[in-house]
Design a protein that fits this description.
Blueprint: H1 2-17, H2 24-27, E1 32-38, E2 44-51, E3 54-61, E4 68-69, E5 81-86, E6 92-97, E7 123-128, E8 134-139, E9 141-145, E10 151-156, E11 159-164, E12 171-172, E13 179-185, E14 191-197, E15 202-208, E16 213-216, E17 223-229, E18 235-241, E19 260-265, E20 271-276, E21 295-297, E22 301-306, E23 313-318, E24 325-326, E25 334-339, E26 345-350, E27 363-368, E28 374-376, E29 383-389, E30 395-401, E31 408-413, E32 419-421, E33 440-445, E34 451-457, E35 466-472, H3 488-503, E36 506-511, H4 520-523, H5 536-548, E37 552-562, H6 564-575, E38 582-586, H7 608-616, E39 631-636, H8 645-657, E40 662-666, H9 676-694
């Protein structure tokens, strides 16, 4: 009788250890800051904050940095805030409301996840700081304010429009063939610089507002992008890449992606090549945050970012002649690059620091352009990103988090080195801060010998073997971290992982090859995605790592992921249902051979047929015969990153084969669940499906 009672006690103890201590609504109620910006004339910072779908703007002023909400949008309608900026005089804030700027297409087209009677527009708004008045000015996107704070130029219908800030009467400035982008004012404010895309090629152009005239800078049949003014406004630097279509070459072979840095004179319009990238795979133009990160700094220095030494690092060179100099060095990546107001230094985010596991974090760095002296300004078991310097040069602002606390604006005193998190009062009172677990860094080998980093979430205690879940990120140019992520999509999945671990799952978040943070060869490997899907080796190895843990029940391992992670989730379920017993595939890609349509002309790549076959057998669709694991498909039908047809077509195959599945469609929402209520619905469905089949 005593043994029975003891067994019951142990069972109840284990049950209580893993009783859910917070709700999905609570853990996903975290506020998320974005668009952090600083005034060039006053010690103000501003940012947009998403609080359970209510997106508003906050202000804070040195030296105390008390936070103040200055807009009052009070409906969860999915309308994001972007392009937040102070006018140069510091008297107004300009921002865009609407659209979905994280999408791959139609990012400046209205989105309607709340099913309003009419489609919301993408609009430019003005906030007057002197009296707090907030007003919508006009439809448009990508606004930039003139140096004298009088005029706003913006894009509407792919053309350039302007309005006067004091008396807004929007008008088209000129008309030009093609699509206009990358607007920027000259330092004197009388010229507008931009690129115009003509389809086969793109050119850098300047419009003179006084003479009402247009001129092209060193026009060619190339693709010119990323134009930047010299500090004196006399010249421009830009990136030049080949235009048109090349001769068909083997599709399954990697090759150098060429690019050059050019400069051009504004008056003569003549240009010259200043630098050409090394003709190696590492020398190809970077696809990390900001791409080439081209800047024209003080002392006539051109700045760029390159992978040429195997890691994405910053380089500088004189604009006229001489070799380039590497500014940042080491086995870490640089992103979120910003030129300081005096144009003599660069701020950046890097995954380096004194701690052994800092490669899976982010910290703030600074490098002096002329001397090359580099410092990492923030350290510890925290994550800091997106730095900006206030105009008084006494404070730096960034957003920061740790394993428990979500991202919040943070102030670093440049005099004392002390950091101060601001806006903690914005955290909801019932947010389960103390219940958050600290994930552990784990490293294991893929079958071909690659080191794979992952984060392990596990609640201590429990009785018997535990079920496990593998999370696979999207992108794939992402890196999951040892704390709350600086991307809102991945802060949300971090919350899901915390929720699952709190339920009693062992959760592993895997950083598979193709992701960033571990060097060029990890980021740009051969035979991946439609060219062979070898990144799935890392996903399977992660599942096998979970199965090898003594506390994990190898017969109860699930998997979930979104976007590219949805693709790899579907591939895992289709190829290895014996390992992955259940999965949730969120807006995944399922068929890849259609990427390689037959060329219109006579010419085609010598390995075209082989490439098509390889792409098909890199697709989940090729392995339906071995897909036996239960699956939940989720997709928003206004997805602008992955066509909803990818899920619709796969479901049709499931129906024809009479294969069981469950589904959740989110009408009118996108890839990023712009409406908070939809986010909670998707998260809840994901967790409930895994719980139903794996029974923690």
């Amino acid at each position: 009788m005593k043994k029975v009672k003891l067994s019951i006690f142990i069972f109840l103890l284990g049950f209580n250890l893993f009783a859910q201590s917070f709700t999905m609504e609570q853990v996903t109620s975290f506020p998320f800051p974005s668009e952090l910006t600083a005034s060039n004339s006053k010690d103000w910072i501003a940012w947009a904050m998403n609080e359970k779908g209510l997106r508003n703007i906050y202000l804070a002023q040195a030296p105390h940095f008390d936070t103040k909400k200055v807009t009052n949008f009070s409906v969860d309608d999915g309308q994001e805030i972007s392009s937040l900026q102070f006018t140069p005089d510091g008297n107004n804030l300009i921002f865009v409301r609407g659209g979905e700027h994280g999408s791959n297409w139609d990012w400046n087209v209205g989105i309607n996840p709340s099913q309003s009677t009419f489609m919301p527009k993408v609009e430019i708004w003005k906030l007057a700081l002197v009296n707090g008045k907030v007003e919508m000015i006009t439809e448009g996107d990508e606004p930039i304010v003139s140096p004298d704070s009088k005029t706003v130029a913006y894009i509407k219908n792919r053309q350039v429009w302007t309005f006067d800030l004091n008396d807004p009467k929007p008008a088209q400035l000129f008309e030009i063939k093609g699509s206009v982008a990358n607007l920027s004012w000259s330092p004197s404010g009388d010229l507008l610089l931009f690129i115009v895309n003509r389809g086969t090629h793109s050119m850098v152009a300047v419009f003179d507002l006084r003479e009402k005239s247009l001129r092209y800078l060193s026009p060619s049949f190339s693709r010119d992008t990323s134009p930047r003014w010299s500090p004196d406004g006399r010249k421009v630097t830009f990136i030049r890449r080949p235009g048109g279509k090349p001769e068909p070459q083997p599709i399954l072979e990697q090759r150098h992606n060429p690019w050059e840095i050019w400069t051009a004179d504004i008056q003569t319009t003549e240009g010259k090549m200043r630098w050409k990238a090394p003709e190696t795979l590492r020398g190809s133009i970077s696809t990390t945050h900001g791409g080439a990160n081209l800047h024209w700094a003080a002392d006539n220095q051109l700045i760029y970012l390159s992978y040429e030494d195997g890691w994405p690092h910053l380089y500088a060179m004189d604009a006229e002649a001489g070799p380039s100099r590497q500014l940042t060095k080491g086995n870490f990546m640089v992103e979120h690059v910003l030129l300081t107001p005096d144009k003599k230094s660069l701020l950046f985010t890097a995954n380096t620091g004194p701690l052994k596991d800092d490669i899976d974090r982010r910290h703030i760095g600074r490098v002096d352009i002329l001397s090359g002296k580099m410092d990492i300004w923030s350290q510890g078991e925290s994550i800091e990103t997106n730095p900006v310097i206030l105009c008084g040069n006494q404070f730096l602002a960034c957003i920061s988090s740790n394993s428990k606390r979500p991202m919040l604006p943070t102030i670093l005193s440049l005099e004392t080195g002390q950091m101060k998190v601001i806006g903690e009062s914005i955290l909801p009172p019932d947010f389960p801060l103390e219940q958050m677990l600290t994930p552990k860094q784990v490293i294991f080998k893929s079958p071909d010998g690659l080191n794979i980093h992952a984060q392990l979430f596990e609640k201590e205690g429990g009785v018997g073997k535990k079920p496990a879940v593998l999370f696979v990120h999207g992108g794939p140019q992402r890196q999951m971290l040892l704390g709350w992520h600086y991307g809102d999509y991945y802060s949300n999945t971090y919350a899901i992982n915390q929720y699952l671990a709190n339920m009693g799952f062992v959760v592993l978040s895997v950083n598979f090859r193709l992701g960033i943070g571990y060097g060029h060869e990890f980021h740009k490997p051969e035979r991946t995605y439609w060219q062979g899907a070898e990144e799935y080796l890392d996903v399977k190895a992660a599942g096998e790592y979970l199965a090898s843990l003594p506390q994990v029940d190898a017969q109860r391992i699930g998997i979930y992921g979104g976007s590219y992670g949805g693709y790899l989730t579907a591939l895992a379920l289709a190829k290895d249902s014996g390992l992955f017993k259940v999965g949730v595939d969120i807006h995944g890609v399922h068929e890849l051979s259609s990427r390689l349509e037959m060329p219109e002309g006579f010419e085609k790549a010598p390995d075209f047929e082989k490439a098509q076959k390889t792409a098909f057998y890199s697709s989940p669709l090729a392995y339906l015969d071995t897909w036996t694991s239960p699956v939940l498909f989720i997709h928003g039908d206004d997805d602008r990153n992955v066509q909803v047809s990818q899920t619709v077509d796969l479901i049709r195959r499931f129906e024809e084969r009479k294969m069981p599945f469950e589904y959740l469609i989110i009408p009118d929402d996108s890839h990023h669940w712009m409406k908070y209520a939809n986010l909670v619905k998707v998260n809840t469905a994901t967790v409930d499906f895994l719980q139903k089949h794996l029974k923690p």
